[in-house]
Amino acid sequence: MPFPLTEEQKKIVDDRGGELLVSAAAGSGKTRVLVERLLDRVTKEGLDIDRFLVITYTKAAAAELRGRIAQELSDRLAANPNDRSLRRQTTLVYRTQISTVHSFCAALLRESGHLLDLDPDFRLCDEGEGHVLMAQVLEEVLDKRYEDLTEDSPFALLVDTLSAGRDDSRLAQIVADIFGRVQSHPDPARWLEGQKELWRLADISDLTQTPWGAPLLEDARRQVRACRDRLLRALELCREDELLQTNYAASISATLEGMEDFLAEKTWDGACARLPIPFPAVGKKRKRTLVISPLAEERADWAKERVKSTRDRCRDTLKKMAESFTGDTAVQLEELSLSAPVVEALMDLVLDFQAAFSREKARRGVLDFSDLEHFAVRLLTDREGGPSELAQYWGARYEEVLVDEYQDTNQVQNAIFHAISNGGRKLFQVGDVKQSIYRFRLADPSIFLDKYRRFREGEQAAEGEPRKRVLSRNFRSRPQVLEGCNDLFRSIMSTEFGELDYTGDQALAPGKSFVSETEAGGPSDPYALELDAIDLSFLGEQEGEKGDKNLLEARFAARRIREMLDPPLMVEEGDGLRPLRPSDVMILLRSPGPVLHHYLQALSEAGIPWTADGGEDFFKTTEVNVALAILQIVDNPRQDVPLIAALRSPVYGFSGDKLALLRADCKGEDFYSAVVHAAEEGDRECREFLDNLEQLRFDAGDRTCRQLMWYVFEKTNLLGIFGAMEGGGERQSNLLSLYALAGQMEDSGCRTLFQFLLRLDRLRESGSPLGASAGKGKEGEGVSILSIHRSKGLEKPVVLVCGLTRRLNRDDLMRPVLFHPELGVGPRGLDRERMVEYPTLARRAVARRLEREMLAEELRLLYVAMTRAREKLILTFALPEGADALSRLGDSLPISPLALEQQQTVGAWVLLHALTRPEGDALRTLAGLPETAVSGLGPAWDVRWVDGTALGEECEVEGLCTDMPRQEGEGGDLAARLSWTYPHIAAAGLPSKLTATQIKGRTLDQEAAEGTAPTARQGQPITRPSFIAEERGLTPAQRGTALHLAMQYLPLDGDSSPEGVAAELDRLTQAGFLTGLQRQAVEPERLSAFLTSSLGRAMAAAGEKCRREFKFSVLDSALNYFPEGKGEEVLLQGVIDAWFEGEDGSITVVDFKSDRVRPGGERERAEEYRPQLAAYSLALSAILGRPVSRQVLWFFDTDRSVEL
């Protein structure tokens, strides 16, 4: 155990007797607690570890968790080596179900899927294959619907309402979107049928009885209450000045009275009757009856601006709110009834598609990830949603079900966990809802929040009652980071804005002591949370302002990192401090893709190495497009675009002029015909290209797509060509990623080149993600640039969160049909006479709920980003409007949920808090705000207002990646410089690797070609076809190979007579070690002669100290083989036929030769092999650390041995 458990951790480890929910803050050691709880039950209760089911979010997390458990068991076993139970657990841990929920479901279905008539040998289709199959089935379903189309049918109404333009692509997109989102429900078909019933709108007397009217009315009441609070503060300001009291007080009072009337109404119709809330005109009195001092007048002017701004903002807010109340219940129900047939037809269409999609997947024997979950739910739950008999059977296997990252669970997965844990009674869940950032993957944080609000505290819960516990102590970050996060989220996170109140039990408590050179929060604290507001107002309205803004913010981040590197910020390592390295820094962005190139440019300018996730589709890269172009013309060369792309690429190097001439010489034909024509006319380049293409196409026939791709890489040297270019490592990684993708598609059924290319085309058409470029930056470790989503689970000493002034993305709220798992669908209505769309009540309600959930998710993303920092956290804000942006923010103070909702950027939330801090006085001055008296805050922030003018110019900085400085005398004799030659040019021509057969001293000595005439070999070797070999026998080289194989496997201590050897050769042939032709080529008499010789008997006597076919690789001085090799090394590789150790400890090297040798000529031939035997001896001596005593060759042609 690395360090003792804290008190709160120990309580969680020891808690028994009911469902347990653990809310674990960032860096609180939740994985450690999960492991300790598991092992505590194993050791104290005598349970086997495979009696537990552990569910994690990813396969990587499952592997890491299994490794941690295995390591902890090993450590405990080392401390108690005689503990048999622990020894047993070290074996069982690899049988324990520690996996993702999908892996568990797959295991369940393979074992029990026959109850649903599922083939246990089903194949799991990947996301890309699923998208292609979905598009095909959806097209077929729509085509069938069109065949039965009538003018007044519900489907015709659906098409008229939801299709756009000249095709039904929008309708298909809507169906696919709803189908995908409804998969988060345990029973999608029941949910869709429920929507049809809901839209029948039966027995409704007031809209608050609908799923949409009640939340809209409550949201309106919430906004009115927030505006009321603002106006009450404005009314207090009015009392401070005579003119304000006269001009504004009466109007504000009338508005407040109207608000109270609205809040008193409980029904939709009553609320509609109270709208619009009155905002009477203000007075116009300009002179006071009493003269006031200049200071008081200045205060009065500021108060007037605040009152006016507050009133205007409240008026605008309530005006927008009233847009949802466009009519009473009767009017709204009539509008909804017009959309009801459309919704019902849409639900029917989705149901039809779901059924057809399921049938097609069943026909193909494939399941997707949602199928795994839904089939598991069908097996594990009964009609009422309780655990089935099978769930009880499976649940009996496990003493406890432990779920990590529970905040990212959806309703389907939660139903599975509930069923296999005896209705939740054996369920342990750990997570942090503040880090739930995967709603786009159908994660539902409300599941965690509902339990957190319902469950009692651990000490207050009765036996068997669900309970909750909290882990708040952070062991990752400095107090400056933790308290800075606490201060911010206390002020902005609430149930209304963020779905959770950031109270004491959610706050991060420092749990680790750090070495520090200064006092935390002091005026010169280098670890203080830093806020950098970058004034870019000098940009004005110039063109390209957005691009400039991103580049300038990137330059500021790069230069700030450079400042921390030189002189270095000291960060903790072990028990001391060390200088900051580039690899200790991480830049986090909400969406790196559009701005990544700016950060790479800025870091390169600052001389800082970097590493980044490309984030872009690697199919847009040059190298991947070239590879695909070559594959396309291998499949069909008569495709002009891929053919020209391949010819123009660095692989074949045709110039643009050359291609133009080829086209001009052969008009009216496809480009392949033009190339053929040029080759027939004697064009050497075209002939070589066609020969190369013909060979690739011929060899493609018997290769899978993965094998063919690698073959293309080898024949065209794609990896070498693009690896030699700028960014070669990244380019090679992209090509290897393409190769890996081919492997994935091959595993999913695309084995041929045509199938592979067809699948890629369909994936592109469906808009599915195909892959991301490797994005590897400069050589060596550098600053990491990641999206916030990718950073989850990671940490770095220094983190910069940039791009915080990027506008929040509300594009999802503009979809044709909105979807919410609780409120259902929100369509637009259509006035069919004027063909004008309008928002329905359902759409307004769904849109409002989705917007609030989106804002909560963005807030959690900010929390995740800020808690990645261990020692130093920097937040940057690019402000093109400069101080004017701060002035507008000032109108939103004091901070309230409504004020936060109205902001357009995440950065505005942080700046609002910064404006209330004592250290924010410079920002308040710029915004024209008075001093504030906020207390109870943590260590001081380092708040900076940065003049961005200097960021407009590049600056040369000496660093790890800057250009070499200019040398003195660089402008010297040009001729001397151009005629310079590399002084080690001879060494540059030396091979880096050398095989023993290459140093035999003759051109004949390819080991497998002994006894054949030397030939110039180019390209792939041409082997004799098997039918000719059967007719004419093996070649000399093949006979030599057969002899070597026989000597490799023939027992040395067996029957050495010709008959015994023949019997053993027959056995080797039957076992597959030799082919029939090889058996015929091997003469038993030759092998018998060797076995009965003194050399053969000596090898047999050596027993296990005799090694055959001994492979080696050793480094040796190149001077031993090349006169110009002084000071260089070469990798010597080879295979020794045999070596053995004699009774006296001497080492003998043996090499078998099948050369044709005249009797008496053995010594002369053996001398030709002396360099090879010397190389073998050198290598073996280096490996064994002992000298080789004898070097012996055995010639099978004459049955003689020669010792060198």
Characterise this structure:
The chain is α/β, with parallel strands linked by helices. Helix 26 (671-680) packs across helix 27 (684-699). The longest helix has 36 residues, at 329-364.
Shape: elongated
Proportion of residues in β-strands? 5-15%
Helix amount: 40-55%
Distance between the termini: 62 Å
Report low-confidence residues grouped into runs of 5 or more.
Answer: 772-780, 960-970, 1001-1022
Q: Kindly name the structural category.
A: alpha/beta
Radius of gyration, in angstroms, nearest whole number: 39 Å
Mean pLDDT: 87
Instruction: Count the beta strands.
Output: 29
Number of helices: 47
Order of adjacent strands in the largest pleated sheet: 3-2-6-7-1-9-8
Largest sheet: 7 strands, parallel
Task: Describe the structure concisely for a colleague.
The chain is of the alpha/beta class and 1204 residues long.
